[in-house]
């Protein structure tokens, strides 16, 4: 009988990153879906935290020999929720591998007293949804994965400006995260450290007064917009559209033309805003809450 081994870590290494990517590509060949693994974010966190003592377990691996055949990760963006997502090699499914990893990850979330434990799954993933139905998880909400494949020249912002955030903005960023996304948030990585890895948070300003924020991640080929919000008292004035357009201009400056983002399906105002800026829906991610 083939012997499988487990490995638990606080952070992923570059080798882990590559192994997970290999497994992901194998799974994507088997089933057309989107896997929301947040590997770039996790590797960035890993590079910012080099301590040897393990405080929290976030990464759960299953190996056959030296080959990664199962993975599940906990992703936490500084709030009070833990998001679980992962995969198993097609040849090792229906053998309890993923359930074993999931049990360990869920126990870790409970130990850390997360207020919410969320399972994340592509709406089109047959295998993923089958597993979720075998648990006690209940549907919570959905997010659209949206993409813009060609940034065209946009109108110049007439009102708002985007300023790179500094570490002194950390408290304000955390405060706004709580307003936009609920719960309480504490920054895991400071803005100036994130910027070293082409992940830049911008404070949105109106007449030098902060009215929102937006984050832009990019590499040589593509960009990603996240953490975007306009403070409630400044909404419905067109500042959101101006801010998105300004962010797209920054990406275009770096010769990036393909941009992605995520938006809650029930957030119709944001969904319509992104569509008005040229974004199209590409996939739907379902979130299920377990206890």
UniProtKB/TrEMBL annotation:
Residues 21-151, 160-291 form the N-acetyltransferase domain. CDD domains: NAT_SF. It comes from the Bacteria. The keyword Acetylation does not apply. Pfam families: Acetyltransf_1 (PF00583). The keyword Aminoacyl-tRNA synthetase does not apply. InterPro entries: Acyl_CoA_acyltransferase, GNAT_dom, YpeA/RimI_acetyltransf. Keywords: Acyltransferase, Transferase. This is GNAT family N-acetyltransferase. The lineage of its organism: Bacteria, Bacillati, Bacillota, Clostridia, Eubacteriales.
């Amino acid at each position: 009988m083939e012997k499988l081994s487990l490995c638990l870590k606080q952070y992923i290494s570059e080798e882990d990153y590559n192994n997970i990517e290999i497994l992901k590509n194998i799974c994507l060949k088997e089933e057309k879906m989107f896997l929301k693994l947040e590997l770039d974010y996790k590797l960035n966190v890993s590079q910012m935290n080099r301590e040897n003592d393990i405080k929290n377990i976030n990464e759960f691996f299953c190996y056959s020999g030296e080959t990664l055949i199962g993975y599940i990760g906990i992703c936490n963006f500084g709030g009070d929720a833990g998001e679980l997502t992962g995969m198993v090699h097609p040849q090792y499914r229906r053998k309890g591998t993923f359930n074993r990893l999931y049990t360990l990850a869920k126990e870790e979330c409970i130990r850390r007293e997360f207020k919410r434990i969320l399972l994340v799954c592509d709406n089109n993933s047959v295998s993923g949804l089958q597993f979720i139905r075998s648990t006690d998880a209940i549907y919570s909400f959905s997010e659209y994965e949206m993409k813009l494949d060609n940034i065209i020249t946009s109108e110049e912002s007439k009102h708002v400006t985007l300023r790179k955030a500094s570490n002194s903005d950390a408290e304000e960023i955390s405060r706004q995260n709580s307003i936009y996304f609920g719960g309480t948030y504490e920054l895991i990585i400071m803005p100036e450290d994130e910027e070293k890895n082409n992940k830049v948070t911008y404070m949105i300003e109106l007449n030098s007064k902060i009215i929102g924020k937006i984050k832009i991640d990019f590499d040589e080929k593509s960009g990603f917009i996240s953490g975007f919000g306009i403070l409630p008292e400044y909404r419905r004035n067109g500042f959101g559209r101006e801010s998105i357009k300004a962010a797209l201009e920054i990406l275009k400056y770096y010769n990036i033309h393909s941009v992605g983002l995520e938006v809650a399906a029930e957030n119709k105002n944001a969904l319509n805003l992104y569509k008005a800026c040229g974004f199209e829906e590409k996939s739907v991610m379902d979130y299920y809450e377990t206890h």
